TrEMBL record:
It comes from Catenuloplanes atrovinosus. The keyword Transmembrane does not apply. This is Aminoglycoside phosphotransferase (APT) family kinase protein. SUPFAM superfamilies: Protein kinase-like (PK-like) (SSF56112). Transmembrane segments: none annotated. It comes from the Bacteria. Residues 33-262 form the Aminoglycoside phosphotransferase domain. GO terms for molecular function: kinase activity. Keywords: Kinase, Transferase.
Length: 297
């Protein structure tokens, strides 16, 4: 399904052609579609590899960012992260860069895979603590590392206001959600310095093995910025995970309110943008907003 006006379609035939041109030793391996998000399409290659292809030009820079930073982060983080093994070049077959990674076994975090939600929340908090504590490595909030998540809430005001308007009648409680967002915008900006952010720690990007959190994938949203936006996805998880996560990081009330506002910003924006093209993602966004409305510390 096409999600963006500038999307470049890709299928197994195109991926095999790319492999024949650059890694012919892999071209004959079994190849199967392994899912697609809003930015990339994935194909499992044999038993040990994953091909990740951007949907549109904007995403190509995100993959380059992953290839540059993940090898530096991997030894310093407490969970497995993707390991890039090939940097694909643009060509006549496909005009954007693409990547190949080591396959990581695991299942999406959810009620059928997570054995202990408080433990899951603590493990996720431990990962966030270590990621946020990484050395800047001479990086700054600029270029591909300057995304809207990690900035000040008020900077997202124009398009967030449009999202609220487009969600009117589609999302129960939209007035209450907009009020929460406006109250958070009125708070002082975070006093914490800019840190490394994954930016999208939702269930589909957290892999579970043997009932416990094992790996964090999809660092396309990697940025440096204020830490509040990192906590937005905690509303995607059951209350015991949220409480354990919050307690483990010992975050204050203002941070909670700004993080909640970021959860609202991303979810309403997702519904407004993808409501006619990506029903599964829209359902995720609706579930997050329902959780925000139902859960208050």
């Amino acid at each position: 399904m096409t999600l963006h006006d500038d999307e470049i379609p890709v299928d197994e035939t195109i991926v095999r052609a790319l492999l024949r041109a650059e890694r012919p030793e892999w071209a004959g391996l079994p190849l199967a579609r392994a899912g697609a998000g809003t930015d990339n399409t994935m194909f499992r290659l044999g038993d040990e590899l994953l091909v990740r292809v951007p949907r549109r030009p904007f995403t190509a820079g995100m993959l380059s960012k992953e290839r540059h930073w993940l090898p530096r982060f991997a030894p310093l983080l407490p969970l497995a992260v993707p390991e890039p093994v090939h940097d694909g070049r643009p060509s006549a077959v496909f005009p954007l860069p693409w990547s190949v990674y080591r396959w990581i076994d695991g299942a999406e975090a959810g009620p059928d895979t997570v054995r202990d939600w408080p433990a899951f929340g603590r493990d996720l908090a431990a990962f966030v603590r270590e990621l946020h504590g990484l050395d800047p490595m001479d990086a700054s909030r600029a270029g591909d590392l300057c995304l809207y998540r990690g900035g000040a809430l008020r900077d997202a005001g124009d398009w967030t206001g449009r999202s609220f308007a487009e969600c009117a009648g589609l999302v129960p409680g939209i007035d209450a959600l907009e009020r929460m967002w406006r109250e958070a915008v009125a708070l002082p900006d975070p006093a914490a310095p800019h840190v490394w952010l994954h930016s999208d720690l939702k269930p589909t990007n957290l892999l579970v093995r043997d009932g416990a959190l094992h790996a964090v994938i999809d660092f396309a949203g990697l940025t440096r910025g204020f830490p509040d936006a990192e906590h937005a996805t905690i509303w995607d998880f059951p209350a015991p995970a949220r409480e354990a996560y919050w307690a483990a990081l010992d975050l204050d009330d203002a941070t909670w309110r700004r993080a909640r506002a970021w959860a609202i910003v991303v979810a309403t924006g997702g519904i407004a943008y993808y409501r006619d093209t990506f029903p599964a993602f829209v359902a995720e966004c609706r579930a997050r907003l329902t959780s925000v409305l139902a859960f208050d510390r």
